[in-house]
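chain below, 367 aa
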Amino acid sequence: MKTNLIIVFVLSVILISCKNIEEQIPDSDSGLIEISKAQFEADEMVIGEAMVYPFTDVVYFTGTIIPSVYGQAQISLPLPGIIDKIHCNPGQFISKGAVLFEVSGNGFIDQQKDFAESSAIVSRLESDYLRAKELYKENISTQKEFTYAQSNYYAQNANYKALKIKLEKMGLDVSKIEKGLFYSSYTIKSPINGFVSSINTTIGQYVDPQQKVAQIIDNGSFQLRLYIFEKNINNIQNGQTVSFYLNGNKSMTYKAVISAVGKSITLDSKSIECFAAIDNPKSINLVSNQFVEGEVYTAIDSVLSVPETAIINSENESYILIYEKEVNSIYYFKKTKVKTGRIYNSHIELIGQIPVGKLLVAGTYNI
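prediction:
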């Protein structure tokens, strides 16, 4: 009885071993890999096909956010003066023509006086010039007298017009000043729409013309300043699409278009400055001089590819599993060597002879 039990046990072990061998390599003669339906579903495998996918060549860059040359204004005074009033605050939005400061000072009063005096002198010299001109035509006066009257009038008239332009640019009514109605102060207005980024003065401060008292930045004019290394500059052209992100957050990207390519190398960074126009910059919370990173799409082509999950890497070679058939809930695949190229957006380019048919595109990691 004991001998029979031993024989039964040995036969059972042999049968189980044979069954395991059959499950792992049941079709070894065909050279196909077999995967049961249970394993296929458990490993979330997917059968698909190679597909044409757009591949993009990119150039990576770092850069900054800056306003355009028309989107920033440095505010200073046309004359030395004292700040009487400040009508803006840092961070405040200002419309073009809005009053920023009121300024007074002796220099401003003196300029009005000089203009009024010049206006009176020009009026007298003009009369003398016209009279001398008529007398010269009638041969009553000499050419020397006429030339003297003419030069005095022209010289004083030039001084008058220069003073007039300066006062008109300050927004003053010069006709009142000519009558002796002087202004006690003048205003500084914003030349653009934008936000006040800084104010560098206080009430009562004496300010010279070369001092900057405020800065206005139009956030709608923000653009990208890209730093492209010399080796990549030949790939950069106007009109190329740019994708960039802020604060290292790659999950939130924004678009721009190359608008200018630099022609000189920055010695410190060994890079070339390029510029890109941002799509709808007002919709993005951008800050001047903010650091950005991203990539320029330099070329786009469509190639046959498969998902990265379809590739099996073994001994420096790449393989895919070509679907052959399904029999009795068993999937049969043929392991086929392929040559791969670029990788983009989790897709791998297939090069050379491309296999035709369905293949395993996901779940190969357990094989």
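The longest strand covers residues 51-67. The radius of gyration is 41 Å.
thats it, cya
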